Amino acid sequence: MKKMTEKNLKEAFAGESQAHMKYAIFAERAEEEGLKNVARLFRAISYAELVHAANHLRTLGQVGSSAENLQAAIDGETYEVEEMYPAFKAVADLQNELGAQRSINYALQAEKVHAGMYQQARQSVLSGSDIEIGTIYICKKCGYTVEGEAPKRCPICGAPETEFKGF
Ligand code: FE2
Ligand code: FE2
Ligand code: FE2
Question: Which ligand is nearest to the CA of 138?
Answer without folding.
Answer: 3
